[in-house]
Structures
1.
Amino acid sequence: MAVFQGTLDQHNGITVESVSNACNDIQDFAVKLEASLLQWEKERLRGVWFNVDISQIEWIPILSQKGFNIHHAKDNKVSLYLWLPKLESCKIPPYAHNMVGAGALVINDNNQILVVHERYRTVSFWKLPGGYVDPGEEIGEAAQREVLEETGIKTEFLSLLSVRHLPSAVFGCSDLYFVVRLKPLSYEITKQDDEVEDCQWMDINTFLSHPQVIDHVRNFVKQAILNEKEGIAMIRNKSEHPLTKKPQYIFTVHRVKDD
Amino acid sequence: MAVFQGTLDQHNGITVESVSNACNDIQDFAVKLEASLLQWEKERLRGVWFNVDISQIEWIPILSQKGFNIHHAKDNKVSLYLWLPKLESCKIPPYAHNMVGAGALVINDNNQILVVHERYRTVSFWKLPGGYVDPGEEIGEAAQREVLEETGIKTEFLSLLSVRHLPSAVFGCSDLYFVVRLKPLSYEITKQDDEVEDCQWMDINTFLSHPQVIDHVRNFVKQAILNEKEGIAMIRNKSEHPLTKKPQYIFTVHRVKDD
């Protein structure tokens, strides 16, 4: 009896891609699934994954009847899993439920801060440029990209200033917002019209007393001034993850100058 | 002509729950969808959302034909969206793609550090207790919960020590790992057998030279000792988000003692 072809992983699990396992019809799918599950139980596999393409969505009710649950979906594919070991609790972590954004604190040599006014907001404020971190992107790089996109200003990374965590935010996810300090390498603003209503270099003292600034954003700027005076900062170090060998970035607090 | 009933949001979008909009059959669904989209375009709505329950999964191919894309899936529901404004780029952010974990650095009055050995790992190391942050949970609370679950030790939050960011990790997501310092409030270890192979209070110097410790974990401990000496730490402040009124936690660097 034919079984589905999948990829084994380091946790002794298997992942089946629907697009490379096309079936004649839904009966064919059901029979092959039955045979595959028997085989995988015999082989003592642990997590079984099906990545079902939107064009083969009729597989899902049958997988559901067999005890599969939806884990997540992206790129028009739904990922379902089944935990096979009967004597061991399921070790598959839930999918990501955290949105991560980066905001940029960019101060120039004239003691001016780079601020933007977003379009399409019911409440209007002067904000730090920034946005969501893209998949695969490092946090500081995301801040630099957003500053360049929104304002045309080129920057270099200095330090991490602050982290804000909202445990309950959009899509039922948490929201993490990293404020990084960037050094401007250019001064001429080229505003992005699609998302940004207005953009300017604003005198820091004006910003600190401006009525259209949210308190915690104002506090980030005060904090940056204080940390500068105290000579402390959160520094980023790039290294390699010892097991996956992929890049890792570690942020730690340091004294950056002596008293 | 009947249209689907949904909930309007602050961005002028609408969300339709499949379970509260059951249709007689799939033809009925297709006709009602056609009428609803015409109506919503007339009303100048922006983002249209369908949360489709796994029991009504046959709606998805029809939604896909109408231009809907899968945004995310959880709790056995698939969320699809369609951006209606033709003259404005889609402003719907992609779903969360960041896993967030918390590790705990717990040092007792005898200069011993709380360490665990996990089960079911191909490579075996002494690690800090910790795990993924639950939905709706604050990072420090997650670390305290994991320490209690894995070791039975009660703790209180002291400070955030470090953040590690892996842009490319499991499920094609990024991984953020927050190391927090916790003060132990109890000393008797009660090991959780399901996930933890072994657990102990280990002398810090033993830990710092132990061959079964990953370098960056060792460095977190060195960093904690250094920051303690320097009198600097990342402090957590709880406040309220000015717009949503939900709790927000802001972590910033401070001098916690004078020289």
Note: Helices of chain A lie at 26-42, 59-65, 139-151, 204-208, 215-230.
2.
Amino acid sequence: MALAKKIVITDGVFLTLKEQCPVLEGSMIIEEDRIIYIGENPSPQDLEQADEIISGIGKLFMPGLVNTHGHAAMSLLRGYGDDLALQVWLEQKMWPMEAKFTSQDVYWATLLSIIEMMKSGTTAFVDMYDHMDLVAKAVEESGMRGCLTRGVIGLCPKEVQDQKLAEAARFARDWHGKADGRITTMMAPHAPYTCPPSYIEQFVQAAHDLDLPIHTHMSETLREVEANVKEYGLRPVEHLYKLGVFTRPALIAHGVHLTDEEIRLLSEHDVRVSHNPGSNLKLASGVARVPELIQAGVKVSLGTDGPASNNNLDMFEEMRLAALIHKAVSGDPVAVPATEALRMGTIIGAESIWLENIGKLEQGAKADFIALDIDQPHFLPKTDYVSHVVYSASAKDVTDVWVNGRQLVKSGKCLTLDEEKIKREFELCFERLVQ
Amino acid sequence: MALAKKIVITDGVFLTLKEQCPVLEGSMIIEEDRIIYIGENPSPQDLEQADEIISGIGKLFMPGLVNTHGHAAMSLLRGYGDDLALQVWLEQKMWPMEAKFTSQDVYWATLLSIIEMMKSGTTAFVDMYDHMDLVAKAVEESGMRGCLTRGVIGLCPKEVQDQKLAEAARFARDWHGKADGRITTMMAPHAPYTCPPSYIEQFVQAAHDLDLPIHTHMSETLREVEANVKEYGLRPVEHLYKLGVFTRPALIAHGVHLTDEEIRLLSEHDVRVSHNPGSNLKLASGVARVPELIQAGVKVSLGTDGPASNNNLDMFEEMRLAALIHKAVSGDPVAVPATEALRMGTIIGAESIWLENIGKLEQGAKADFIALDIDQPHFLPKTDYVSHVVYSASAKDVTDVWVNGRQLVKSGKCLTLDEEKIKREFELCFERLVQ
């Protein structure tokens, strides 16, 4: 799949995500992995020099979506035990099945999720799981960006803990910056309730040694918060703070149950929160205090969580949920307006995983962007495309996807992966697991 | 478009919605407007007698979705004033624009919404609006079912009130049972806060005279409830009860702010509630007490509300929201399980608008059903199709739609309406309105 040297898109509508000019009608030019021009339709001369000219008529172009928390391989468990409480679901349904996963299961299940994500406009995603070399291989092959981390549960003997930590560090070191820079890594103790304090401290030390951020689940359920207080005399935020987690740049998944004081503490450190509204609702975990977090200056991005607790990987749904639920819960109809939800799903997502110059359409930005078919009833009338994308669009409106200047999806078809083969292999994995 | 006399679908997966056998693999036979067989794949003889044989491989067949509250023509106001409070949005944005709507605007805007609804698997919908003859004409042409009602705002001089009531009654009488029975009607005073008490009583009398149900908005916002108490000394439920509204079969839209006592009163009368979660969230109206309503035996169905407050007409989203938000708000992860949400969107929806023998796939039921393309990553693995439909599917997974035995959508294309022409006319209407 050769890179097109110079791609010109003409006659399109562009959601730039820039404050001065959020919506622009005209043209965009991509050279190698960068946007080199965005503005009025170009001169005939520019068109002559193009390797590829794409008509943007009937299309909306916008930055790719960034999914900042998930476990892609859990697609193998989609629909396997719904309508249960988080702990029951984890302990009785998910973990016993996951214990049986082989590297090959993780590879094919991750590829299946990558296809779903790519085709629905996600261009970068965070993954916390096991068998991560195979996850990295899948990301490398797909052309997507991945911020990957071996998520470690430390409820095991010391020698197993040591082996897991070494493996997590080895993975993080081996893959950080690989695949033309599309893969980055983090260190991830799974959660305060699954890792003893001293083990979390070892992860903090490793993150310092490797100069990498930390990713962990935190304050997802009230039960977790109460258990943490019972066991350690501290709520999870202060617990992690005392263990040094916030001495590193950190990305926290969930953060549903936070006090004012905890929000202040997060805002005073380099801690970003991945808000997972679909998963939090489905598992009855609660509704995160997103307006307060944003108000305090915390970067809040969006994640789907794993496909077993969502149950799809449609980031348009997460943007819409983020824009909807906080209005009803707060009673404030301007809580998380459409523009904010769109930023959470794109540019703030990119910033939250330390991707620079990604998540906006402007000269010099990386060419990670998507096209939507807006020649459809639910995109009419042409009143407000930010509103339409957040309140009306969905995964399957996406027709084309580019990452790092390379087209990965064209007219709804994956260019980089063999979808039929992946679905077949995935089904074989599932059949073997349930036997 | 001739009716196929006998259609046989082979090798499909069927969500029957029957308790004993919710999912069935095999075949379904349709003759005229009815399902005459569902079960194992048929004999070669049955296939010989078929006018049309459809391969169901890779498809999931299920009852069509029933949208029990909306204002289809408000598609003209999609994205026109989002992120505002209900009263501000109504009084400053919606009503001034709606005052300019002509019959032709309503006709084309309703057709645009009908296309969106049909293509996303909705086979029957409730519409409360003005210029209803044109709405009925649009429904008649489309092949869908519509339960239609002239929604009347009574904040006007008595002679205008009289004229509107007469018009509403004339419409209801003229169209009830028309279009091969696909169109039914109701009497609809818009809301307790937009109709004086004596005017509501006149609607009750007219509903008795015509032997029709009543449809109205009720207890949508806290502000409405408080204003009702201030003006009439009663909350909306008791107010409408005293005006005789519940002496008729009634369909109430929203019912967000209800006390235990009010829920009991509704359950003791023939009152059904149309739950509109997307709209209630977006307008910050609150979260209806759906688990308590269901517990009390009230029929709770689902509606999108108008496209200006949703902003799409995707009933899969409403089913998902119904299954998700009540879990988080109640803290109960089994609140509104997937099966219940699916029933709310299909069979309970049909029952809520007095459609008999619709909303399930079984011998003798009316042939209102849809097909979804399940050969996609988000429908894998094949664990639980009820879960997949509620937690993972979306509008654009729908490929084919039948109503009353007639195919309206085939491979994603409308067979009965000219989509390109309707989009063009719709855009002309909008341009004229904003001039």
Note: Chain B has a mean pLDDT of 96.
3.
Amino acid sequence: MMMYNCAIKEVRTKFEVLNDDLATAHNRNPIEMIKSRIKKPESIFKKLLRKNYEVSMASILENINDVAGIRVICSFVDDIYEVAKMFISQDDVTLLSVKDYIKTPKENGYRSFHIIVSIPVFFANRKENIKVEVQFRTIAMDFWASLEHTMKYKKDIDDADSIMRELKECADVIASTDIRMQEINKKLHYAKPSE
Amino acid sequence: MMMYNCAIKEVRTKFEVLNDDLATAHNRNPIEMIKSRIKKPESIFKKLLRKNYEVSMASILENINDVAGIRVICSFVDDIYEVAKMFISQDDVTLLSVKDYIKTPKENGYRSFHIIVSIPVFFANRKENIKVEVQFRTIAMDFWASLEHTMKYKKDIDDADSIMRELKECADVIASTDIRMQEINKKLHYAKPSE
Amino acid sequence: MMMYNCAIKEVRTKFEVLNDDLATAHNRNPIEMIKSRIKKPESIFKKLLRKNYEVSMASILENINDVAGIRVICSFVDDIYEVAKMFISQDDVTLLSVKDYIKTPKENGYRSFHIIVSIPVFFANRKENIKVEVQFRTIAMDFWASLEHTMKYKKDIDDADSIMRELKECADVIASTDIRMQEINKKLHYAKPSE
Amino acid sequence: MMMYNCAIKEVRTKFEVLNDDLATAHNRNPIEMIKSRIKKPESIFKKLLRKNYEVSMASILENINDVAGIRVICSFVDDIYEVAKMFISQDDVTLLSVKDYIKTPKENGYRSFHIIVSIPVFFANRKENIKVEVQFRTIAMDFWASLEHTMKYKKDIDDADSIMRELKECADVIASTDIRMQEINKKLHYAKPSE
């Protein structure tokens, strides 16, 4: 697991550098926050079994793509695509897959831009390519997703259907408000600063 | 300014303790993030002049309430009032004033719960009561406020009126979505966890 | 354990404030580093059994003084006594016991200044007085102690006696060098700064 | 300056990864602490003038090697050479120069292992090779160097000569104690852990 933790540190540093550069050169901080998590051993184990994969370290490295997860939370939707593009274009980042749940939201309303990349990490006496899942979201999408996530871990909910419908409606309102806020921001961006 | 920085550290620690306790005992993290800022010397100076106060350290300590500012960003509106109440009820926290811009939003749509408190800080050879402004907001209110804030520093905006109207509308949508999300959360809260 | 973690945060903040104040007002950073640790549940359990205490939360709070431990690492011996005095004299810090292993080193050469204090911590709905052990050391004492510590966890050491003798000698050399460095620092302290 | 700050972040992450790997795989933490500093604009300016270099950003990137400085503080002398070797052997680190003030201390007693490297940093829309100075020291060497450093900024010191002689003597005692402690550590390292 230490290996994945180190991969997270390397990817986090890459995003911090991008944010610092954009803050200095372009006077904007597209990244609001960076969160990270390591998948728990039991979840990895369950996933290996569920997918009929061998249970071994080599099998984890090859088959499980989301042991290391980073969440990059941006202010606006456009920031997501811009920062993701800058990150993917770096020499030592290999893009393995893309899932755009912003353009095509999940049925329940979930929105997020997911990529799996592989990056080299230099350990004491070897270099290893480690997979990392990066999820890009706006602040509002992230708030919605955290609520939707708690729903997964609950059962015996009265009105589960009506709650899901309500959640879906909130997701749509949030998505359209994100766009309206972004439009306002663009208009403000081109205005002259006050003295 | 060092004094105000230290006061911020003490207040931040108090909120971290509250959040840790609530996370352990009640399995919830009401506080999503804590941000802080120190008012710039030039802004303090301008404010002293504008309000016709003497320009001295003693005058700053007495007259300027928001040199040290902490922003406590919560998931839900109810969390704001609960965390604020816990904080205010602590022995060594003296509440000086309250402005509830959630119950009574500003005309432009601004929502936030502001308090001014005074807390003792122990320096090398003296104890000093320092004023700190604490702003409580939901994640969505904070996002809105950051956009509204950039508007203040811009001039020569075409359609300033229409942007302000649009911002106001977004504020209202955001406020009502916050309430809807809170209702969903309450319903989920009382449901049994899955096995 | 969360309670002890919170107590550590509060005490750490108090030392950071002292260091910031001394850095600004007196242009010196007496504290080089602050480390902390929570005693492991199994160690607490063993200690309760060894000392014939009841095994309960109340018993831990009353009988075990070093569940929460903070180490304050100073540059010079004089800093230790000065910082400790400032800390102890704070209104809300209650001094419970002192062991001065600098004035009276342990037989093996161990040097450190230990105090047990109790401080109030404000949780969600109660105030609790929590005990914290604070160990003050110079950088060199800390380095020595970390080596001596690894010795405790080893057995079957050839020449255990000669190693202990060698460690003891190093402790004495380190202590006298600490004093010489402190004397040099004092002489430099009173000299004028270059332009 | 932002560019150099980012380079420091990247190098710091590389050392943290090495330390994590060694801690997990070999149960040791060779790196005690990592400090960093950016050279102040006025110091850079003075150095450019003193060395008769052009005053421009391009000239800084080419001619000044220590704008970004990282200090890696290790427990033992052997750790220094081992960690330095691991770092230098990484694909994307280019070694530009080495100065070994441990093997050949400065006349005043200064000991430290210095290297200048260049590493690629990925900014928003370009990759830049940035120079970083890395200083490796033991804890004791670092403490000594910080005292020696304050001497440089003082003038009108009575007994400057005797202080310098005293400092030199302390440096030698410290160096020989470092070696003795390292020998003890080696002996302990090969002993069996207690149950």
Note: The radius of gyration of chain C is 19 Å.
